[in-house]
Amino acid sequence: MRFDLVDLGLFIAVADSGSITQGALRANLALASASARIKGLEDAIGIPLLKRRRRGVELTAAGESLLGHARIILHNIDEMRGDLAAYASGARASVHLLANTSGLSEYLPKALAAFLREHPDINIDVEERESVDIAAAIASGAADLGFAAEHALPDHFERFSFGEDRLVLVVPRRGNFAGRRQIDFTDVTDRDFVGLTTSTALQGHIAKHAARLGVRLRVRARLRDFDAICQMVASSVGIAVVPEAAAKRCAQSMPISIIRIRDSWANRKLVICARSFKTLPRPAKLLVEHLRKAAQ
Question: Exposed/middle/buried for 252, CB within 10 Å: 0-12, 13-18, 19+?
Answer without folding.
Answer: exposed
